[in-house]
Structure formats: C-alpha cells, structure tokens
Amino acid sequence: MMLVVVAAGLAIISLGIGPVRLSPRAVVTALGGGGDAIAEVIVREIRLPRTILAVAIGAILGLSGAALQGLLRNPLASPDLFGAPQSAALGAVLVIALGAADVRSWALPAAAIAMAFVSVFALLAIAGRNASLLLLILAGLALSSLAGALTSLALNLSPNPFAALEISFWLLGSIEDRSFRHVVLALPFIIAGGAILLGRRHAFRVLSLGEEAAQSLGIDVARVRLSVIVGVALGVGGAVAVSGTIGFIGLVAPHLVRPLIGPDPARLLLPSALAGACLLLASDVAVRLIPAAEPLKVGVLTSIIGVPFFLYLIMRERRSLGGAAT
Fold this sequence. Notes:
- This protein has helices spanning about 1-15, 25-30, 35-70, 85-95, 105-125, 135-155, 160-170, 180-200, 200-205, 210-215, 220-245, 250-260, 265-290, 300-325.
- Helix 3 runs antiparallel to helix 11 (about 220-245) and helix 5 crosses helix 11.
- The protein is built from 14 helices and no strands.
- It is mainly α.
- It has a single domain (about 1-325), classed as ABC transporter involved in vitamin B12 uptake, BtuC (Orthogonal Bundle).
- The protein starts with a helix and ends with a helix.
C-alpha cells in the first residue's frame, strides 16, 4: 500500500514538473477536466503520456527482474544483465536503419520483442539450467555487448541523419516527448507480458525448492521457463520500442522491496513492479530538475545509479559465499 501511495505521489509530481510548474492541486484539477484550460492541455495532452509510460515501463522492468530472479533462484538475474533491453533496442534500431518503418510503427515493438526473445532464450540455452552466477554474468555480458556493438555499427553506417538521431535515442534511453500514440504502441505488450509473468507466480514459489522438487510436485519447469521468456520478451520489447534502453531498474527494484516482503518470490512480484514504477518516475523527475545545458536522458541516470548498486550486490554475494565456505 505504501508503494502505491509513493507511486501516486511521484506521478503527480511528474505531471507538475516542466517549463511550466504546476502545483499538485492544479495537476489534480486538470486531470479532472477543470481549472485553467492551458494547464489542462499541459497535463492531459503533453505530460500524462510520459507519466503513464514511466509507470508502465518501470513496472514491467521491475516485474521482469523479480520473475527472472525467481526462475533462476539468483539475486543478480535481471533483463539488462541478460541483454534483453539491448537486444530489443537492436531490433528497433535495425527496423529504423533499414527504413522499414518509422518510430510510430507497430513493426518497432514486433522487432524489439523478437530480439528480446532471442536474447533471453539464447542466454538460458548457453548457460544451461544450473548455471553458476559467474557463467550467467559472462553469458549475459557477451550477449549485451554483441547487441550494443551491432547497434553502434548501425549508427556508424547510417546514411540518414534522422535515422542516426533515432538510433542515438535508443542508445541513451528516454521517455521525453512521448505521446498517446506511443502509449498505445507499448501498453498492450507490457500488459500481456506482465499478465504472463504474474500468472506464473505460484510456480516461482515451488521452484525455490529446486527444479527436481518442483517437478515432483507437478510443476512443468520447461513450460514455466518458456512462459517467463515470452513474458519478459513481450514486456521488455514493448517498453524498449518506445523508450530505448533503460537499464538496472529490473535489478534494483526487487532488492529494494525484498527486505520488506521477504524472500518469497511469489509475493515479491507485485511489490517489485511498484518499486520499478517508483524508480523510473523518480528518475524521470530528477532528469528534469538537474540543471544541464541539454536535458539528461533517463537511461543515463538509471545506469549511473544502477552500476554501483550492481557492484555492491556482487561484493555482498562474494562475502556470503566466503562466509559459507568457512
């Protein structure tokens, strides 16, 4: 409940922040269709799509991270460490660079989802069922590096300045200047992916006992694994199709709520989604408040915050393994 209140408060702040500052009361009044006509246009037509996308994208990233951690029983599992956002961005970039579609085409989420699916499936196939933490990180790093290199290659070879600008957008990650067309483009895939992941929440609880125990209790582990791959690909692919690469939300969000919720992976899913929404909303508000000659991109800020947090988790994991060995 607390996370819902925090998310609602951040959403109101997000709707009030911009070149024209609006008070929370003015925002609520404008959302209800009353008050000043200019404020109503600013809130409902210009800022509301950006806020909706921040909530939806942050939520699916947080949910995907919690689902992958539950599936692999590994606290460092997340979509960006597996290369899913980078691969999804590559799919969208290829569509743009080849001139197959513009930035508002349904071909973008389709290509992004396909590449995200390939990324997660390839990592699970390469690393195997009982992969160690080191093997998962190395395989994910290789896949994300390959996707990033191919995206940079497309940028390098792009003869069209417009295409090069759009490719740069995917590399940095942003929800700036998004419209309701982008909301319609991303939301169906995000909702579908989230529904698939939430539908497997009870299987994650059983999987925490181990794959053999889960199978003995009637869980089809292969089907659960495929469902998670499809859910992550749909959700992350749909999100990246309109925002570009936004990293580390899926890694950080589950760790923020785990001390409050406990280790149960089934109970962790919804709080992780809410925490992800709060993180992206707060980051998007921050990039508008930080003084800079050019507006910062939210993907840059989440990476700056996420990398030190990731290093901290690795150090904590190493200390726990060292303590277990002694």
